Amino acid sequence: MRKLARALALLALLPTAAAAYPERPVKLIVPWAAGGDTDNIFRPFGQAFQKQLGETVVIANIGGASGTVGAREAKNAPADGYTLFAVHDYIHLTYYTGVSDVAHTDFAPVCAVASTPSVLTASPKTKWRTLPELVADAKARPGQITVGATLGSTSHFFPAIFEKAAGVRLKYVSYDGLAQRMNAILGGHIDLTDGNLTQKGKVDAGQLRFLAVGTEKRSPEIPDVPTFKELGLDVVYAVVRGVMAPKATPEPVLATLDGACTKAVRDPVFAQSMKVQGTDVHHLDRKGYAAFLARVDAENRLLAQELGLLRR
Amino acid sequence: MLALLADGILDVLQLKYLVPLAAGTLIGVVGGAMPGITITMTVIMVLPFTFGLEPLQGLAAMIGVYVGGESGGLITATLLGIPGKPSSISTMFDGFPMTRKGEPGRAVWLGVWASFFGGLLGGVFLIGATGWLAEIALEFGPWEFFALFIFALSMVAGLTEESLAKGLLAGALGLIITIFGADPIMSVPRFTMGSELLRGGFPFLPVLIGIFAFAQIMTDIERARSLAESDASARDLVSLAVSHVKVVGEILGRPFLLLWSTFIGLLIGVLPAIGGSAASVMAYDQAKKLSRHPERFGTGTPEGIIASEASNNANVGGSLVTIMAFGIPGDAVTAVMLGAMTIHGIQSGPLFMSQETTLAYGIFAAYLLAHPIMLAIMAVGARWFLRIVLVPKSILIPVVLVLCVVGAYALNNTMDSVWVLALFGVIGYGLVKLGFPLAPLILGLILGDQIEVNLVRALMTDSDPALFVTRPISALLLALSAGSIALALWQRRRQRRRQPAADGAPDVDF
User: Fold this and answer.
1) Which residue of A130, A206, B200, B252 is most buried, as measured by CB atoms within 10 A?
2) A64 and A204: one domain?
3) B3: burial class by Cβ within 10 Å (0-12, 13-18, 19+)?
4) How far off is chain A from B349, nearest CA to CA, in Å?
5) How many domains does chain B have?
């Protein structure tokens, strides 16, 4: 009897049903195909996350239309904390370039987990060894040097920022996804693309060239590659990936998720798998991520406007 | 190199690699046989288990899934007339009629043995010619891809049945289906009529299942009464027994067909983003063109099964080439494998073969060993799954229907796919009723997006359209397309003229 009373008292203490969260598996929507860069980051994260959360985290790849199909699915999911959304900076770009109606404000931020610096990568069939050589050539032949990019997404914006900083004009060709761009650049069908450290193997083999990296300081993984900054160009660009939840997700659920995420990013297995992928663990909590999203959103809007891609 | 391969095989023969390989193959066969469950989904399912394993253990499991899946698809295609996965569509064209003629055992085993030989031959090429094949693939720019897809599309002319006009219309319909939804370049919505569902377009697999599975099921239901009677007599009529010597003889007795289909499969596999379905349709079309009795295709001829299955298993070997040579995934399945390597910290790329020699040859060995394992699984399993044809249709049809719907949902985890499945089920049934062939439609559907993307890409790279005919590979492929259409038309005319005489001809081909 006393036991029962104690149990009832405990029950009464629970503020809402949400305190029992999570009591079943959580679905994490990755809006791209399995095996892509984003998937490769969130699969190890999912493993670390579920250890902290105490429930299975299921990765659901919902690809299509530059990642906007998954975004729409996540936006329309019940806001109960059982559907989460793995996201990166594309969410701002697809919104401002008119590709999608889903904006980051349709979600509640949970945390940022990783940051992958962009590296300007050249085909081996081009003659440039260094960034200044490329800039000089691009000035001599405006609009003729080709860049493979997922139009309206991060791989479009990174070269576009460089274009603006260097005062040159490039020609963009649509290649959706890194794998397709790699095939085209190895064969010399495009001259430049947005790469990252996962392509280091091809650079070591002389099949690709890293011209400059979009970080503040040189990366210890590729110490020979200069930053744009030391070459006098103000280009800093990295793709930050994080987790969001549908807008109306209850506060206690978000707090639980935030707490689990903070611990998950410190998991040494996760850190190791990020290191081998040339990605930095980059944690921001709910508040930090919200501030970051707001800042990046404004930057992206301005950028889209300057590049003549703003459709809103 | 042979010594390295022998080492690789001895390595993989250890239990710690052999168990994941065999388990993967078994899972692959089962997944491949389920309509709507793709090999990609099956590989993704296996992926999390590989995090805790050694890299080669994980890759062996995935290769097993890949090889097993390509073979598993033929079970449903031949026995039920429903493709278990896209690349078994052309297996169905002749496999299912053969089953209807009362030879399900022969149909399945022709497919299994053709997969086995095609896969192994593909493996030999894979090991010998990785570098060489990969070099060719790199030469393919958007112009060449465009010309290649046009060449593939020209096969519509060969795949039409009695009416050329209906065949061409079906092909055009396939192309039109790919126009709906966000355009592949800037995601500008097209023909969405303001509907959220149409924004994502019509995803390939639900359309495929809808058109084939539903159309098949509906015609089965129409004949349900007579089928119920035939169920009773099926036990006596259907021969599940099969002479393996005879089946193997049927395949090896056509060495040219086997080699040519394998080659097509490999080549299509090496080229990125095309996949096994195009390979098997192309091999099927080639077999038909080169056959002395093209009119027998579609009625249960062994050549059709052999061409399709040999090419789709060789296609697996081809897809592994690009991942081994450049670290670039050729299709969704190898993308997942590459992901697994990346997570294990293995640097993929051109130095992979020299830096990770043991692992590279382990992958080759796993690929080769997966084939005998697949054969063994089929040998044990055949006893049970061949009985599918004996299950009363009143039980079978609802079960297959449920599997189709579940498969469509699981594909992207959204209900949208299920609505697409239902819509195209109705369309497919209507087309069958009106006498339209479905093969050209599927070809249009497979190729539409790729033709568009590569055309736009080529013109974005260089606005000069003359490049399509001045670049040698592209020009050659376009010339081949014209030749392919001419040959198909000539064959039709000849066939029509010889029709009365051809009936009593003996059963020899190639």
Assistant:
1) B200
2) no
3) exposed
4) 5
5) 1
